[in-house]
Amino acid sequence: MKTVKIFGAVVLVAFLTAFGVKNTSTGYKVGDIATDFSLKNVDNKKVSLKDIKDAKGYIVVFTCNHCPYAVAYEDRIIALDKKYKKLGYPVVAINPNNPEKQKDDSFAKMQERAKEKKFSFPYLLDEGQKIYPQYGATKTPHVYVLQKTAKGNVVKYIGAIDDNYEDAAAVKTKYVENAVDALVKGKEVSVKETKAIGCSIKA
Amino acid sequence: MNRIKIGIGAMLISGFLLASCGKKTESETEKTADNVTEAQKTPPPAPLKVYTKDGVSVKAYDFDKLEYFLTQKNDTTYVVNFWATWCVPCVEELPHFEAINEKYKKDKVKVMLVSLDMFKMVESKLLPFIKEKQLKSDVVYLRDPDQNTWLPKVDSTWSGALPATLIYNKDKRKFYEQSFTYDELEKEVSNFK
What we know:
The structure holds two protein chains of two kinds.
Chain A: H1 2-24, E1 33-34, E2 39-41, E3 46-47, E4 57-62, H2 68-84, E5 91-95, H3 107-116, E6 123-125, H4 131-135, E7 139-140, E8 142-149, E9 152-159, H5 175-184, E10 198-200
Chain B: H1 2-26, E1 28-30, H2 36-41, E2 49-53, E3 56-61, H3 63-70, E4 77-83, H4 88-103, E5 109-115, H5 122-133, E6 138-142, H6 147-154, E7 161-162, E8 164-168, E9 172-176, H7 182-190
Parallel strand pairs in B: 3-6, 4-5, 5-6
Antiparallel strand pairs in B: 1-9, 2-3, 4-8, 8-9
């Protein structure tokens, strides 16, 4: 009887601690199913992942106009879409910032930037800032590579685009490309998570 | 007997969860004061480069060199703030760090501002900013684009968003991925005294 009591107490503690851990680390981990969304694109049309034809997965990039790190990566994001859309992994860019807090990230400015840079991918506004917290994005740029499966869109990679924000020519490891290359070949992604400096999201 | 085994197993698991929980929420580790005298003798590393403009200069380090300033073991409490001139919430909280540096100078509290501006902005943005705001705290420039390697060495919980702050002394270390008000910052610093 005594052991049952102790066991019960231990289970309770384990449950509470597990719950506590869950509370502190929000957002997706590799292996989780990522939510779909319906967000306004710079062409005023709503975009959902499920509407993108022939996709085997997606390169979801939380990015924005104002952040120098995001700007430094713009051309590389365009290049990712060019290379991987035809292989079934298109880029879907989402601006998570609240335009009221960050004027340069207004919908009008997003439209301007998309036109200037000839974005070949959707550039969506996370109106009400509801999607980025579900993903657990904390900064721009912040990438989630998803693979479409029968269960849903499985998170396969989270983190940086590559290992040098300053100089695309000096990049040694292209994390996102390596991840998507692995998925295209039906292999396991080797580096599943990386970290990089970014601008904190202004909600 | 089986019950006892399960009980012990569950205890071990909950112990593990507790430990990892503590790490996650607090991101605080107690450090021993080993090698204090030895560490004090080591001189600071030479910077990669010193940028100077209009009478203001800033030393540039890569992370291997910067690490010295994140691990000093003496009787000073160090408040290390990671920021950049383009980061609005960082610039907003800078006056609080300046105020703490001034107010607690005699109490052996030292603020260091680690700029993560882009390389091409050091001379055009960072140096003019230091001059304009007349920053009194130590400002250094971290030039190390391979962030995935060094970010976890500052703190394993850091996702990479700015601003971020590390407060440490020889006994204690705590990391904050957040913005501070003056009162919040003062309260945290006072916990280190």
